Structure formats: C-alpha cells, structure tokens
From TrEMBL:
Membrane topology: Single-pass type II membrane protein
Lineage top rank: taxon: Eukaryota
Keywords, ordered alphabetically: Glycoprotein, Glycosyltransferase, Membrane, Transferase, Transmembrane, Transmembrane helix
InterPro entries the UniProt entry points to: BC10-like, Glyco_trans_14
Protein's UniProt name: Core-2/I-branching beta-1,6-N-acetylglucosaminyltransferase family protein
Transmembrane segments: 32-51
GO CC aspect terms: membrane
Main localization, broad class: membrane
Organism from which the protein derives: Arabidopsis lyrata subsp. lyrata
Subcellular location: Membrane
C-alpha cells in the first residue's frame, strides 16, 4: 500500500497542477496509517458504487440481475419506472451505426447467448420476462396502428416496439399509444439499395440493447397479425429456431442475381433468396450484427437487379448458421398474380373466408424447444400487404376471426 502511495505521490509532484486529494493533506499532517485506511475505504466505496451503477445501466430490464442496493431501496414499480426511463434514453441515443453495432456486439458474445431465458412467460418468481421485439419499418405513418393497438392490449411487459421511419417524418402518436416515443434514430431508406439492410440492422441493434428481448420480428407498415398475442408469443418463444425465408432459386430472379465478383467469399452454390420479413432469435440477431465480411461483399457487388434485402441475410445464415433457421418466413404475401410486386388488399377483400384461408393455408413442421416436432397448419403468423382502408373491416372482424379486440 505504502509503495503505491509513494508512487502516486511522486506522480503528483511531477504534475503540481493536479489538485491534491484529501489523503495527501492528511499525509502532511503525519497520520500516515489513518490516511491509508481512509484511502482504502474511500477507494472501495467508490469502486463498489461504480460497479453497482454499471450493473444498473447494463440491466435496463433484467430483474434477475438487479443490484442489491436497488432492491433494498426501491419498490418493484419504482425500478420499473427507472428501467423505462433508461429505455427511453437508449431510443434517443445519438450513436452512429458503427458505434451502435460495436456496443451491441460487446453486450454478450453470440456463443454465450442467454437462450435459457426463452419461454419463461410468467414473472411469478421475479425472474426476467422474455419479450418479443416487434420492429416496424415504414416510410412514414403506420396506417394499421389501430389494429396493432388492439393486438397488444393487455400484454404489457411481454413485448417491445421499435419503429424505423424516414427522419423527415413527424410523429403523431398520442402519449397513450403503444407507438408513442418508440422511434429509433433513423436514416432514409432507398428501395433496392443497401440502406434497406442498414435499417434492418439498425432496428435489430436498437432492440438488442434491451436484454429481455429474445425474439425479433421485422414488420412493414402494411403487415397485420393473423392470431392473438398469446398464440404468436407462444409460437415464437416455443422454438429455438429462427424463421428466415431461404431457398435456392435457379431462375434469373434467383441465381441470376449472383455476381461472380463475389467469389471466393460467396460461391454461387451458397446463394440464397428469401423474404426480407424475418423473425430471429437473439443469438442469430447478434450474429447478423456481427458480420462485416459478407456485408461488404454484398454492399459492393449486389446492385439492382440484385436486391440486397432479399439475399444478404438468407445467404449469410445459410453459409454460417443454417442449423439455426427453419428456412421459412412467417409473413404471408400474395405472389399469385404475376408481376414484380405482390398483391395488395383493399376494403372488399377483408372477409372471414379470406383471412382463414391465409391462417390455415398449408402444412409445415414446427420444431419445439423440447425437441418435439409437430405438423401444423399455422405456417404464417403475419400477412402483408394491407392498405390503410382495410383497417376498418379488420377491426370489425378481428374479435371473431383473429381472436383479439373488444
Ligand atoms: C413500496 O410499496 C408500498 C405499497 O406497494 C408502499 O406502501 C411503500 O411506501 C413503498 N415504499 C417505497 C420506498 O416506495
Ligand atoms: C450525443 O449526445 C450527447 C448528450 O446527449 C452530447 O453531449 C454529444 O455531443 C452528442 N454527440 C453527437 C455526436 O451528437
Ligand atoms: C388466443 O387464441 C387462442 C386460440 O384461439 C386461445 O386459446 C386463447 O385463449 C387466446 N388468448 C387470449 C388471451 O385471448
Ligand atoms: C462452389 O462450391 C462447390 C461445392 O460446394 C464446388 O464444387 C464448386 O467448384 C465451387 N465453385 C467454384 C467456382 O469454386
Ligand atoms: C435450414 O437450412 C439449413 C442449411 O442452410 C439446414 O442446415 C437446416 O437443417 C435447415 N433447417 C430445417 C429446419 O430444415
Ligand atoms: C433449445 O434450447 C434449450 C436452451 O438452450 C435447450 O435446452 C434445448 O435442448 C434446445 N432444444 C433443441 C430442440 O435444440
Ligand atoms: C420428428 O421427430 C421424429 C422423432 O420424434 C423424427 O423421427 C422425425 O424424423 C422428425 N421429423 C422431422 C421432419 O424432423
């Protein structure tokens, strides 16, 4: 101890501009032992507080990792308020994408992901609640917000909402709305460019900052839920697999978009195509944020008619983490009409028969967390492209058909 003190003292003498700490004033008075004790005590208190503050910061939503003093000082509700405040702060951060991705990558390494938290819906034992992050990507408004409000009603604490929208767009959600203040720092998105993938990664990274988010759903402004919240929540948290649409399309619209300059990092046999609307686990989301190698190859060589948002994540996951994905998307869309764009639905389309045809359309295999697999007709949990005018009929029939609402 004495040696350290001496060293510090020497340093201080070399830098006389630094104001003298209290301990040196004590030293001058000759009570050397007292000052050492004082220093040890002060240092320990400082270190302890510092670590505790860090723990509070890290555990924005984990009750599990709550530091001792906060449980002693605050009631549960009080800590909830603090957490919400911290979360608001993270939404309003001004980190660049690079800073954000670096921070997220350091949160927890992909291999030590906390998958053991999955599926713990109820918070009876004070353990962390698993949340599903619903990430909305839109150019401006969310015309179907009213339907989502009904969908989420009564399930507070089991979901988080993130909105990426054009930075020039002015929000108009009332304080009572679930979308109020849920916007992340956004950048303009240009169709068919890498800015689309950047926005997806930005949403993922912001949602990853909250460690209780364990599943991540990407949604557009024209998406609707096809079931009630509990059904969708249980479906997502009941499996270890991500749902990333992925297939090898030999046609011009598939392999035809591969650029041979991507070789050798990406071989044409690795090339995959899939819907941009993905659903992923926390572990795979961290892997997606961590990739820079393949991102660069795509950014450089995947230009229209190659669309990065349809190929980058499916190809990346296929090459590096194929076993983590069910290789199918959960978001239904109508490709039955020929053409470059899928079908859009308008007011007269909304009927019980139509919705039930999407809800129970085909058969697919669902791999449960326990290792069991079941064949289910629930292949899609969400559907797009629903125009603003469908809101009224959807709200009207959702209690009977979709199972939520008044
Ligand atoms: C904790 O909550 C109880 C009731 O839930 C309340 O009576 C008490 O004052 C609260 N304590 C603090 C420190 O807020
Ligand atoms: C980020 O915000 C902090 C305060 O919130 C401010 O001090 C800092 O200058 C900002 N940085 C940038 C790059 O805007
Ligand atoms: C959601 O739907 C399922 C199946 O229709 C039903 O069993 C369940 O009770 C519903 N949940 C709620 C909260 O209404
Ligand atoms: C791509 O990979 C396949 C097998 O994975 C291999 O047979 C083929 O030669 C590779 N293509 C090139 C251009 O190297
Ligand atoms: C998905 O595809 C990968 C290869 O990319 C494969 O390893 C994996 O088994 C597939 N998943 C399922 C559930 O079939
Ligand atoms: C899913 O993950 C849990 C927790 O990591 C693990 O115990 C379980 O064996 C996994 N299930 C399957 C089918 O891999
Ligand atoms: C489903 O699980 C059974 C064993 O429980 C296995 O024999 C079968 O191959 C699995 N099916 C699929 C599609 O993985």
């Amino acid at each position: 101890m004495g040696i350290i003190d001496h060293k510090s003292k020497k340093e201080e003498e070399q830098y006389p501009m630094i104001s003298k700490p209290l301990r040196f004033i004590l030293l001058q008075k000759g009570s050397y032992v007292l000052s050492s004790l004082f220093f040890v005590f002060g240092f320990s208190v400082g270190l302890f507080l510092c670590l505790q503050l860090k723990a509070v910061h890290m555990s924005t939503t984990t009750t599990q990792r709550q530091p001792l003093w906060s449980t002693l000082l605050f009631n549960h509700t009080t800590t909830m308020d603090i957490k919400q405040e911290l979360q608001l702060k993270t939404l309003q951060h001004n980190m660049s994408d690079q800073e954000l991705f670096t921070k997220v990558s350091s949160l927890s390494s992909p291999t030590s992901s906390s998958s053991s938290w999955l599926g713990r819906r109820h918070n009876n034992d004070g353990k962390m609640v698993v949340k599903v992050a619903f990430m909305f990507m839109t150019g401006g408004r969310l015309p179907l917000a009213g339907l989502w409000e009904k969908f989420f009603e009564g399930h507070e604490g089991f979901y988080s909402i993130y909105v990426h929208t054009n930075p020039s767009f002015q929000d108009s959600f009332p304080e009572t709305s679930i979308f109020y203040s849920r916007r992340i720092p956004s950048q303009p998105v240009y169709w068919g460019t890498s800015s689309m993938v950047d926005a997806e990664k930005r949403l993922l990274a912001n949602a990853l900052l909250d460690e209780s988010n364990q599943r991540f759903v990407l949604l557009s402004d024209s998406c609707i839920p096809l079931y009630n919240f509990t059904t969708i929540y249980d479906y997502l948290t009941g499996t270890n697999l991500s749902f990333i649409g992925s297939f090898d399309d030999p046609r011009k619209s598939g392999r035809g978009r591969y650029n041979h300059k991507m070789y050798p990092q990406i071989n044409i046999t690795h090339w995959r195509k899939g819907s941009q609307w993905f659903e992923t686990t926390r572990e795979l989301a961290l892997h997606i944020i961590a990739d820079t190698v393949y991102y660069r190859v795509f950014d450089e060589h995947c230009k229209p008619p190659c669309y990065m948002d349809e190929h980058y994540i499916p190809t990346l996951v296929h090459m590096l983490h194929g076993e983590m994905s069910a290789n199918r998307t959960l978001t239904w869309v109508d490709w039955s009409k020929a053409g470059p764009h899928p079908g859009r639905f308008i007011w007269p389309d909304i009927t019980d028969e139509f919705l039930n045809r999407i809800r129970f359309k085909e058969e697919c295999v669902y791999y449960g967390r326990g290792g069991e697999n079941v064949t289910t007709s629930k292949c899609f949990l969400f559907a797009r492209k629903f125009t603003a005018e469908t809101l009224e009929p959807l709200l009207r029939i959702s209690p009977i058909v979709l199972g939520f609402g008044p």
